[in-house]
Amino acid sequence: MSNNDWGYIANRAKELVREAAKLIKDSLKDERTIEYKSNPNDLVTEMDRKIEAFFNEEINKEFQEHLILGEEGTGQDLETLNGIVWIIDPIDGTTNFVHQQRHFAISVGIYEEAVGKIGIIYDVMADELFTAVKGEGAFLNNTKLPKLNEANLKEALIAINSGWIVEDTRMLSLVKECRGTRSYGSAAIEIASVAANRTDAYISLNLSPWDFAAGAIIIEELGGRITTVEGEQINLLKAGTICVAKPGLYEQLQELIFKKG
Q1: pTM
Q2: Which domains are seen in the chain, by residue range?
Q3: CB contact set of 83 (below 8 Å; sequence gap of 6+)
């Protein structure tokens, strides 16, 4: 196998995601050790660390030249995306995992020289596997997803955390203009929901690369837009704002929030 046999890498990555999901499901009956990171709302469990360590071990075993950027710090401390880099969130939606035991996902984005090649989001409890390989479209389980149609703000269902509406008053106009808002508590699932045509856009004012690395590849395969809220290219090495939207709606959001267009 060559170092960039993307079909093989994609299949192996999907296998690892499913193996990791089984480890998570098997742990649900056990008592969890919960810690705080930056604040009491920023949770981490022993399973977050265990799953990331699992990926780290398996990737290093089979793809020795590949690099890893992970939420819990078991990979490398990267300053560039040179080479092939796996960007991993072992459990996206840890608060949901702790409180609800549902609505959390495993997110894996694989990049080569900063170009997205493979995106995988697995909603563990719903058994929904979103996948994309660059240039080959995106899939939900074994069904190919259609390209995203244009959407209109007046008819749009937008995923946004209510906290951002309080923090940034620019979002009030958005809430007043759209059909409705939702919040699922997992950035990966929020982005996947746009890919599956369940929502029309997703906005967040603070996400880390592992939250959106996989979703960016899936959305772009479907013709959607993903940038910062300010309309700039996303940065896969640092936290920032995110705007994911269907065509047409993206331009309306930019015009509404930043008076662009």
Answers
A1: 0.92
A2: 6-144 (3.30.540.10), 153-258 (3.40.190.80)
A3: 65, 66, 67, 112, 113
